[in-house]
Design brief:
The complex is a heterotrimer of chains A (343), B (292) and C (283). Chain A is built from twelve helices and three strands, in the order αααβααβαβαααααα. Chain A has helices spanning 2-22, 28-66, 72-91, 108-118, 124-133, 147-157, 181-212, 218-233, 237-240, 243-258, 265-285, 298-333; strands spanning 96-103, 138-139, 161-168. Chain A is extended, with a radius of gyration of 33 Å. The chains are: A mainly alpha (343), B alpha/beta (292), C alpha/beta (283). The interface between B and C is small, with 10 and 7 residues.
Chain lengths: 343, 292, 283
């Protein structure tokens, strides 16, 4: 019990109080711990903990494959993807590049031409200038994923250069270097997959809006109107919506507000249609076709909704959430809330 | 009349797969045929502020460009990164790349390689990419106090002492401007809280549309100077930069975001139409049920 | 005014005084307001915890989302389907994740009681370990340790959308009857909620991520908005001290509102030149 409950609790309370009040203590060591070390300790623990998660995932997927449980075929993909990423990160570097030096007299133009052709550049003169400008050796600006491909290219250059070397970007840096297998995997597999999942949101927003934005009551109507104005105002098409469309929307809005008070539907229809006609005639006479007022411009109404009601609501929510976080953190720091330790 | 009502009732209870197909087409067709839809892009005041802040910088100034986005948010934020780099390079401003997300390394590598050659910019002299370090806010605090304690070398492993443009750069106070390309946590808020506000360094940001409400309070308080809000913000900034580059008689490739705005606009209109049809159908059905 | 208020007020003033005296030597300069705010908040919350311990009845309004927790698990049991619990995609250093795991403990107790199967896919390894501990303890408390299995809480992926895809796959294949989304979420919130909606599950969500709250409100049956989510563990445990801390939190909110009004009024008077005191420069 001491090891499982009391000691972790003392660590939580001690570190919590130190981190909280350490911000106010004028001591290098304490400030250093609070500002840097505490976060870095967590990052180190989290980094080692990744093995737990990865092994757990592998174990579950392998059990599915071995026992041929339902949909075990998908688990093969999961394990294969995992293995490929490990291979690309830890075992296969790629990112091979070639350096040349000591180019024989009169061969510079030929070498530049060969390199330009390989790099798909139309002007070998730029490459010639870069070779002449390089001090010891010139690094050809192309990375090869396989040594085989690099050596094929080297064969073309070998007759014309004195020194030619095949090198690789250092381990670690290779994952960020164009031309490495890991980089290729990231750009050609992870990036499109991530972007595709994010793009699903567009479809889900459409179906969620279609289902949820119904005029059930006043608040729902307000949500609907604000949502439509923001959706249209945020994109360039909002600028194209003319003032009379906005005035029609405004009249419908007034009609919706007045509807509970006017029982006779024909009178309501008359008020709304009459209002629309008067608005349009008035606007045409006032020259709104050339200079529409700001109130009847969707982007400007959208800016206003963003800057005032939406901002006020989000600030209030932010303050509430911040206070919730403060209170929860306080309960944890003083050891009152032990549920995170398991009970 | 009855036929019209029946049509609306059907429209109001569409299978979600049909909605997905229609939304998909409304995005795909403008992307494939951008010339069919040409929409004017009006820069918002917030995008204009970002542009003006960067335009105020002088040749030789130092800008910290922080990449906090990944593959999923790349379509929204990467065009901003490209436009910002074009603007900075055109003004011969030195660019220092950092990343608070691991994916930021790939994004920064791609952005720099896409733009630097077009403007004849040399690595180590005109731009440098220091890359990602784990730690979130701790990294920002480290940059605010002493960059070399966190970054002994750049992304490729070259020591900072061997990079000419790192010579006089010790911490954030040596930068004239900070721009955060942010898709979440850690991001712009953390830059405000731990570096730019305490040290009074001007900061602007480009973020995803969903984050705008989170960040607007800081923009309103002038802690962040302007904001590029999602893809519309990227398109607005691209149009401002292209106009500026034309004035400077610099030619370049057009930005991606402007071309995608038509798709986003049509998709929004389609969603609004679905909402309207859904409501009309809801009223007709409700009236029918009441009568019945 | 009772004695405790006086004692705590005096303590507040003494500590603040000590800070001011020690500024520059032991304590950092220029953080008086921050220190005073932290002290005031801590003392207020602790005062109400103390009052609750002494036996004071604390009234809390009903939070529909939390009331529906047990109903949702019951529904899953009746339908013979599983319960899915998603504790967010952040690590244990976020308060929202800790809060989500606290609620997981309560949900796990219900699933143990009703013998419903529980599935907790997680995005971070440390959260997986913490989640396992919490579930094990809950099943033990409910008297059903035999029903617990480590595989209930399993790791999917650290990558945001890989995790969302994995959870979506679980929802589509297993079709849980109850889905709980309680933790820190980002853009994947709507993907999860809409998929849960499409399979007809009852959905209860709660998050401190402001931008995701509207998506959950649209797609879920119950949503814990803002502080409702953070009070959940206290609300469900019904322990007097924890309920007292919720009241303390509400009083702090009242103080913040009063401070905001005071600041607006004082700043207004300063702007019009009626007073020389600029409260904004002091804050």
């Amino acid at each position: 019990m001491l090891l499982k409950r009391q000691i972790p609790l003392m660590i939580v309370i001690g570190v919590g109080l130190l981190t909280l009040f350490g911000n106010f203590i004028n001591n290098e060591a304490v400030r250093g711990f609070v500002d840097n070390d505490a976060t870095q300790w967590f990052d180190i623990i989290a980094s080692f903990a990744i093995f737990l998660g990865a092994l757990n995932m592998l174990k579950l997927q392998l059990i599915k494959i071995i026992k041929k449980q339902k949909n075990w075929q998908y688990s093969i993909l999961a394990v294969a993807g995992f293995a490929f990423a490990i291979f690309a990160g830890f075992f296969y570097r790629g990112a091979n590049f070639i350096t040349i030096a000591d180019i024989q007299d009169g061969q510079l133009a030929i070498v530049s031409g060969i390199i330009a052709e390989e790099l798909n550049e139309t002007n070998p003169y730029d490459i010639k200038t870069k070779i002449m400008g390089s001090q010891d050796e010139y690094e050809i600006d192309k990375l090869f994923m396989t040594e085989g491909n690099a050596k094929l290219f080297m064969e073309k250059l070998t007759p014309f250069v004195g020194v030619i070397n095949l090198k690789s970007k250092p381990w670690g840096a290779h994952v960020q270097t164009k031309g490495s297998l890991f980089y290729w995997m990231f750009i050609n597999m992870i990036t499109p997959l991530g972007a595709t999942m994010f793009a699903l949101l567009a479809f889900f927003v459409a179906s969620a809006s279609y289902r949820a934005f119904r005029i059930r009551n006043f608040e729902a109507t307000l949500l609907l109107v604000a949502g439509i104005i923001l959706m249209l105002g945020r994109v360039p098409i909002g600028n194209l919506i003319p003032w009379w469309v906005v005035s029609i929307m405004l009249m419908f809005g007034i009609g919706a507000i007045a509807a509970p008070f006017i029982k006779e539907r024909k009178i309501l229809l008359g008020i709304v249609s009459g209002g629309i006609i008067i608005f349009i005639i008035f606007g045409t006479l006032m020259g709104w076709n050339q200079t529409p007022p700001a109130l009847l411009s969707i982007p400007i109404i959208q800016d206003w909704i963003f800057a005032f009601p939406a901002m006020a609501g989000s600030r209030a929510l932010m303050i509430g959430i911040a206070l919730g976080i403060v209170a929860t953190s306080f309960r944890i720091i003083i050891g009152l809330d032990k549920s995170v330790l398991g009970g | 009349m009855e036929t019209i009502k029946k049509i609306f009732i059907v429209l109001g209870s569409l299978d979600r797969r049909i909605i997905f197909i229609i939304v998909g087409l409304s995005v795909l067709i403008p992307l494939l045929k951008p010339e069919w839809v040409d929409l004017p892009i009006r820069p918002t005041p917030e995008s204009q502020i970002v542009f003006d802040e960067i335009n105020k910088l002088n040749e030789g100034d130092k800008v910290l460009l922080s990449f906090e986005y990944g593959p999923s948010t790349k379509p929204e934020i990467h065009p901003m990164a490209i436009a910002i780099l074009k603007h900075l390079y055109a003004k011969n401003i030195q660019v220092y790349g950092f990343a608070l997300w691991p994916d930021g390394n790939f994004m920064s590598t791609e952005a720099f390689s896409e733009v630097s050659d077009d403007y004849d910019k040399k690595y180590g002299v005109d731009y440098v990419n220091l890359g990602y370090k784990p730690g979130g806010e701790a990294v920002i605090k480290g940059i605010a106090s002493d960059i070399r304690t966190l970054y002994p070398a750049d992304l490729q492993g070259t020591s900072l002492n061997d990079i000419p443009m790192m010579k006089d750069v010790i911490n954030i106070e040596d930068f004239d401007f900070v721009f955060s390309l942010s898709a979440g946590y850690p991001g712009s808020k953390e830059w405000v809280q731990y570096a730019c506000d305490p040290k009074n360094i001007p900061l602007s940001t480009g973020c995803t549309s969903i984050q705008v409400t989170d960040i607007m309070p800081y923009v309103e308080n002038d802690q962040i100077r302007g904001i590029l809000a999602g893809m519309p913000g990227a398109a607005e900034y691209e149009s401002l930069v292209e106009a500026e580059l034309q004035k400077m008689e610099i030619s370049g490739k057009p930005g991606e975001a402007s071309g995608m705005m038509a798709a986003q606009s049509i998709a929004h209109v389609v969603i609004v139409l679905f909402i309207i049809f859904g409501n009309i159908s809801y009223f007709i059905t409700r009236k029918k049920n009441r009568k019945g | 005014m009772n004695n405790k208020v006086i004692i705590w007020s005096v303590l507040f003033l003494i500590l603040l005084g000590l800070y001011v005296l020690g500024e520059g030597l032991i304590f950092v300069e220029g953080s008086r307001v921050k220190f005073a705010a932290i002290l005031l908040v801590s003392i207020t919350i602790y005062y109400y915890i103390d009052r609750a311990r002494s036996g004071e009845e604390i009234y809390l309004r009903t939070i529909p989302g939390l009331k529906a927790l047990e109903e949702a698990v019951g529904r899953a049991t009746e339908m013979g389907k599983s319960v899915l619990f998603v504790p967010g995609i952040s690590d244990l250093d976020q308060v929202e994740t800790i809060t989500g795991l606290n609620i997981l403990g309560h949900v796990a107790e219900h699933t143990a009681k009703y013998e419903a199967s529980l599935n907790v896919p997680v995005s971070k390894s440390i959260v997986m370990e913490a989640g396992r501990d919490i579930c094990k303890e809950s099943y033990l408390r409910a008297g059903r340790p035999d029903l617990y299995s480590d595989n209930m809480v399993h790791y999917i992926s650290d990558e945001q959308f890989a995790y969302a895809a994995g959870v979506n796959g679980i929802m589509q294949r297993e079709k849980p009857a109850a889905c709980f989304y309680l933790g820190k979420f980002y853009a994947e919130s709507l993907i999860l909620a809409e998929t849960g909606n499409s399979i007809g599950a009852i959905q209860i969500a709660g998050t401190g991520s402001m931008a995701q709250i509207p998506f959950f409100v649209t797609a879920c049956d119950y949503t814990l908005i803002g502080e409702e989510f953070f009070t959940a563990s206290a609300y469900l445990s019904k322990k007097p001290e924890l309920l007292g801390s919720i009241k303390g939190q509400d009083i702090v909110k009242l103080l913040v509102m009063a401070m905001m009004v005071l600041t607006v009024v004082l700043n207004g008077l300063f702007q019009t030149g009626w007073i020389n005191f600029d409260i904004l420069s002091y804050l």
